[in-house]
Amino acid sequence: MYTFEFYNPVRVIFGAGKIDCAGTEAAKLGKKALLVSYEEHSFMSDLLDKVRELIRAEGVETVDFFKVRDNPEVAMVADGAELARGEGCDCVVAVGGGSVMDAAKAIAAGVCYEGDLWNMVYHRHDGSGGDQISPPSEALDMLMIPTLPATGSEMNMCSVLSNAALKEKSYIWAECIFPKAAIIDPELTVSLPPELTACAAADTISHVLEIYINSQPDTPLQHYFQEGVMRTVIENVTRALDDPTDLEARANLQWASTCAINGWAYPGDGWTPMHQVGHQLTARHGVNHGASLSIIMPAWMETFKGRRPDQYLRFAKRVMDVDPAGKSDQEIIDEGVAKFRGFLETIGAPTRLSALGVSEDDLGEIIDGVARVSFGADGNLACNPPVSRDDILAVLRKAM
User: Fold this and answer.
1) Which of 281, 310, 387, 388 could join 287 via S-S bond, C-beta 3.0 to 4.6 A?
2) Does residue 210 share a domain with residue 122?
3) Where are the beta strands (DSSP E) in the chain?
4) Cα-flanking dihedrals φ and ψ of residue 67, to 5°?
5) Could you read off the pLDDT tens digit of each residue along the chain, which spans 400 residues?
């Protein structure tokens, strides 16, 4: 085992019908809440009305900020922080998926932040940002109510933001943006359309697969945990697609999503190089975050399966249930990666860049973006082993 520190203060209220706790939980945080959700929210207007009524019934005022779009922009976050500050909000309640929760976290920090809010974001991993990069140290208290089992933002200290002007996407990482509480109610996910259910499943898997194949070896408990998360998603997403009202499957997906990225799966360093490439697909081409990862994951594995064969062999056997009888290790590994790509395609998650309008001509600027934002001072992308520009080009070509 490696040395590490672990801290996660988020209180989770989990279960069907727990949305009814929204008012009492909000009342623990303050007297005036900024209610954050999507700009286009007609599909969940009844839920937002219910949450607002529950909060107000407990004597807490609400101010609506319904301006969040997919891949939240720092300019929108600044608008939310200005509104919260001007209205005297002392807490934030987020109702939505990862984009809403990430925006809410950044707004909660932005209320207390001086200067350009993009400086809260780790937008230069090589240190060239200098003193400009300054993570927030305080934020308003937050309650998260996730409606999509994907990012796990309800139980971590990360917020991912985009900057349209710079065509960049990166993250805030700060203890002050841990939510105080999260109400995780699987009933809120039963109306999700199939494509979002599929991309959310891919996103959840990516959070543990990243660490499983790209990070520290010899962490047996973490490997078993990562495998458990992946198997849970694989076994339950098909059930949810076959019967969207299968509440047990929805609950399993929701809890797997939370646990995948709340820190339990990766005490110590956990590198996420696939996400850094995916962020560029989102920032430059508007690719859904989960879709970007469903495209990158199989291509990444096909490219790098020879670098850590023991781990890929374990993945094939323990996660994809490849029968090893009469097969060489390489055949088992190849079958495992192929079965994983097949699984993603079966559930309806995209696995090819070309299907989303990305061409060979776009690859150079994608790689340039990854290098500018995410490469370290050594000129590589943090990974075990490190990843170069040529390596990323090989991945993107396999993803075409």
Assistant:
1) 281
2) no
3) 11-14, 32-38, 61-68, 91-96, 141-146, 158-163, 168-173, 181-184
4) -135, 10
5) 678 888 999 999 999 999 999 999 999 999 999 999 999 999 999 999 999 999 999 999 999 999 999 999 999 999 999 999 999 999 999 999 999 999 999 999 999 999 999 999 988 888 777 678 899 999 999 999 999 999 999 999 999 999 999 988 999 999 999 999 999 999 999 999 999 999 999 999 999 999 999 988 888 899 999 999 999 999 999 999 999 999 999 999 999 999 999 999 986 667 899 999 999 999 999 999 999 999 999 999 999 999 999 999 999 999 999 999 999 999 999 999 999 999 999 999 999 999 989 999 999 999 999 999 999 999 999 998 999 999 999 999 999 9
Residue 145 backbone zone (phi > 0: left; psi -120 to 50: alpha; other: beta)? beta
Rg (CA), the chain: 20
User: How confident is the model over 24-68, as pLDDT tens digits?
Assistant: 999 999 999 999 999 999 999 999 999 999 999 999 999 999 999
Residue 244: which region, alpha, beta or left (left: phi > 0; alpha: psi -120 to 50)? alpha
Cα separation, 121 vs 162, in Å, equals: 9
Does one domain contain both 123 and 244?
no
292 in Cβ contact with 239 (< 8 Å): no
Closest CA to 36 of 124, 116, 111: 111
Beta bridge partners of 122: 171
Contact 205, 321 (CB under 8 A): no
How far apart CA 176 and CA 121 sit, in angstroms, is 14
Beta strand pairing call for 168-173 and 158-163: antiparallel
CA distance 281 to 275: 10
Cα distances from 152 to residues 111, 254, 265, in angstroms, run 23, 9, 12
Among residues 151, 169, 189, the one where a domain terminates is 189
| Crossing angle (nearest 10°) for helices 74-87 and 98-110 | 60
Place of tokens 């949450």: 51
The crossing angle, in degrees rounded to 10, of helices 220-242 and 309-318 is 40
84-130 per-position pLDDT tens digit: 999 999 999 999 999 999 999 999 999 999 999 999 998 888 877 76
CB atoms within 10 A of CB 224: 10
Residues counted in the chain = 400
Residue 62 per-residue DSSP state: E
Q: Which domain holds residue 159?
A: 11-189
Domain count, the chain: 2
